[in-house]
Design brief:
Structural class of chain B: alpha+beta
Strand content of chain A: 15-25%
Order of helices and strands of chain A: EHEHEHEHEHEEEEHEHHEE
Largest sheet of chain B: 5 strands, mixed
Shape of chain A: globular
Low-confidence stretches of chain A: none
Oligomer: heterodimer
Radius of gyration of chain B: 46 Å
Mean pLDDT of chain A: 90
Radius of gyration of chain A: 18 Å
Low-confidence stretches of chain B: 445-455, 501-510
Chain lengths: ~230, ~500
């Protein structure tokens, strides 16, 4: 990963996780700063421009979601949240507050690196195109190709796919998808998503039952595979 | 007082005169054809009748009036009270004597008959009460029946008083009667009957009798007492006490049963908790042992290990951490499910999508044995997707532990009658003789569970989650070897249809 000189703020109260992140990310070429709580993080973010934030949702002093909100109000840098496995409601809160993606604890360093890569790519270049394993999308020309062959999508299917492609590799919550594709008044209509995702998978996936590209984050949202 | 005493005497006198007049009429009809002795019998009959019908005082008066009337109307010289010869005098004297004796005997006989009937009725009442109480399943029913029986035997003002949580006596059932609280309390605390005919508080209008228990009174029964000098007062009081004894016994039996049941429940809860703790402890300790073993081997003997061996140990640590994570998730979910406040986060979900997500995750972790068959056009279901995913993950994880490395694990979803059915099937050793109900029941692991364990808690949570959704879960031996785990989710109502004219498909929102 070409991360030389990038500055990263880890906001995590657990010393072992801070140590493990610092050790492996410094080796990747990041300059790693650490805050043990929300207040410290807010103070640090006020003095320095970071390139990436990693925020634990369960902080001792301030709610992690509020920290995400604070950071997002001041910075465009990607924010990754760390959360417990089963706490989908909190993940969604964090994502809707402006976080780019989440990683469920416990996580491996490989998983974290992959998420960080995707998140940093977002700010690097806003390429409107997507290409992975023979699936190619040209957002400007509204074209989707699978192994060179064009796949015809209805306008809604394309809008949904394009929304996911713009956040390729990152999760997009149900609410964000419904609001961006159908409109703010449709955020409760999750059954639209189920049906259109089913149609999209039938057209795009080689095995729609176990998708390769259009992945489900059960209880949270969908993501288009990033790598 | 005088008036109340004088009135019955006057009534008796009038009845005696009336009966004597009747006897005289009969004797008059017999006159000439029958002897004076036979006419005397008519008067004697009147006395006997009076004794049975009206009692001692009436029959005595009738005896005297009869002798006078016989003398006046029939003993020569007739229509005078004189007696012509000694023979008649003897007849009159004999009539008087016999009348008085018969009157006495008849009265006593009558009183004994009445007593016998009363005793019989009371015995029947007690018997009926015993039957009713024996069949009462709970305390409310028991008290209701006791009140009914008391009211039937002692008048409808019968009341049961029971101590509440603070020990104060409270009337059972509705109504407001002039109950003397102090008297009730005294009877309750001293465990003695009080009121008329007892040594305590005889001036009370009611009796208060404790419902006796083993160590203390369990309540008080109170009824309107008999009049202080009425003849059967002692028996009536004893009858009330017999009632109270029966009610007390039944109450005590009920309370004892309750205590025994509560104790049994506590033992059961305790044993479920112990089984749960044992299961959690096992499911945590097993991967922890493996992790610690691998880590200490790596840190202490690295120089003796080949690169491949080191990789294997590291891989082992990763696998065991994933295993522990699954266990931790299950424990967390169990805690969440057992706290009543957390409801299901239901939404319209696609079963196929949930299966795809769980299977995809397992494949990325390296298990290539999973095969998915989802029927096309399955309807959406209204469920908590995260929980259903956990059921699937547990069932698949279970199959992965038991299935041989080269055999497929098949996950299928199809539509049944009014429900959607999901099956997870493997070619492992199957259930053996294991009772499926036990498998899901008490954090059990199958008899032939391999050492890596973990199934116990998982299956119990599967059952809890599926049942929360109104579905059922089952396990059986699979044809051709292996196990089939199957759960169903009720279809309920269908998802709302997609309107034809919404969003960018129709309009131009982009």
């Amino acid at each position: 990963m070409s991360a030389t000189g990038r500055e990263l703020l880890v906001i995590e109260d657990d010393a072992e996780i801070r140590l493990f992140l610092k050790t492996s990310l410094v080796a990747d070429g990041f300059e790693v700063f650490a805050a043990t709580g929300g207040r410290e993080a807010q103070a640090m973010a006020g003095h320095r421009q970071f390139d990436l934030f990693v925020v634990d949702l369960g902080l001792p002093d301030i709610d992690g979601v509020d920290v995400v909100r604070f950071l997002r109000a001041r910075s465009q840098a990607p924010i990754l949240i760390l959360s417990a496995q089963t706490d989908e409601a909190r993940k969604i809160e964090g994502l809707d507050a402006g976080a780019d993606d989440y990683i469920a604890k416990p996580f491996g360093i490989g998983e974290l690196r992959a998420r960080m890569r995707v998140a940093l790519r977002r700010t690097g270049n806003a390429a409107p195109n997507y290409e992975l394993d023979g699936l190619a999308v040209d957002l400007d020309r509204r074209q989707v190709r699978r192994n060179g062959r064009e796949i015809h999508l209805t306008p809604i299917e394309f809008a949904l796919f394009a929304r996911l492609a713009r956040s390729a590799g990152r999760v997009v919550t149900h609410r964000q998808l419904l609001s961006d594709v159908w409109g703010a008044e449709y955020v409760e209509h999750t059954h639209y998503l189920r049906i259109y995702m089913g149609q999209l998978r039938a057209k795009i996936e080689s095995d729609p039952a176990v998708p390769r590209f259009l992945l489900t984050d059960t209880g949270v949202g969908y993501r288009l595979a990033g790598e | 007082m005088n008036q109340t005493r004088a009135l019955p005497l006057l009534h008796s006198l009038l009845r005696a005169v009336a009966l004597t007049a009747l006897a005289t009429a009969v004797a008059w009809a017999m006159d000439g054809a029958y002897s004076l002795a036979s006419q005397a019998m008519a008067y004697l009959l009147a006395v006997v009748f009076s004794a049975f019908r009206f009692g001692r005082r009436d029959s005595m008066l009738t005896a005297v009036a009869g002798v006078v009337a016989l003398n006046f109307f029939f003993v020569p010289p007739r229509f005078t009270l004189n007696i012509e010869n000694a023979d008649y005098g003897f007849t009159l004297a004999a009539l008087l004597l016999v009348s008085l004796v018969v009157s006495g005997l008849a009265t006593r006989l009558k009183a004994e008959t009445v007593q016998a009937r009363l005793r019989e009725r009371r015995a029947r009442q007690l018997h009926a009460l015993a039957d009713a109480l024996a069949a009462a399943e709970d305390e409310a029913l028991l008290l209701g029946r006791s009140s009914d029986a008391l009211s039937e035997a002692f008048g409808k003002d019968a009341v049961l008083l029971l101590p509440d949580a603070t020990g104060a006596l409270k009337q059972h059932g509705p109504g407001s009667l002039p109950i003397d609280g102090d008297a009730a309390k005294w009877a309750f605390e001293q465990r003695r009957s009080i009121g008329p005919g007892t040594a305590y508080w005889p001036e009370l209008p009611r009796w208060y009798t404790p419902l006796p228990g083993d160590e203390r009174a369990l309540g008080v029964a109170t009824v309107v007492a008999s009049l202080p000098d009425s003849p059967g007062i002692g028996e009536a009081l004893r009858h009330l006490e017999a009632f109270a004894r029966q009610i007390g016994l039944a109450l005590q039996r009920g309370q004892l049963t309750q205590r025994v049941q509560a104790a049994a429940l506590e033992v059961k809860t305790e044993s479920v908790r112990n089984a749960l703790l044992a299961s959690i402890s096992h499911d945590m300790r097993t991967p922890l042992s493996a992790i610690l073993g691998s880590a200490t081997t790596l840190s202490g003997q690295r120089q003796y290990l080949s690169e491949a061996q080191q990789q294997e140990l590291l891989r082992n640590i990763e696998d065991e951490v994933l295993q522990m994570t699954a266990t931790a998730e299950n424990i967390l979910q169990l805690a969440r499910l057992s706290s009543q406040r957390v409801g299901l986060r239901r939404d319209w979900e696609s079963l196929g999508e949930i299966i795809g997500a769980v299977v995809g995750r397992q494949r990325r972790r390296g298990d290539q044995r999973l095969v998915v068959r989802v029927a096309p056009d399955l309807p959406l279901v209204y469920v908590d997707a995260v929980l259903i995913a956990q059921v699937l993950a547990n069932l698949i994880g279970n199959a992965e532990r038991y299935a041989p490395d080269d055999s497929p694990i098949e996950v299928a979803a199809s539509s049944g009658v009014g429900e959607l059915v999901v099956t997870v099937e493997d070619r492992g050793p199957g259930l053996g003789g294991e009772d499926p109900a036990r498998l899901f029941g008490k954090f059990q692991r199958g008899r032939d569970a391999p050492a890596q364990g973990g199934a116990g808690l998982g299956l119990a949570i599967c059952k809890a989650i599926v049942e929360l959704h109104g579905g059922r879960i089952d396990a059986r031996n699979r044809d051709g070897g292996g196990a089939t785990f199957e759960f169903s989710l009720p279809r309920g109502v269908d998802a709302p249809a997609l309107p034809a004219s919404i969003g960018p498909e129709a309009g131009d929102k982009r």
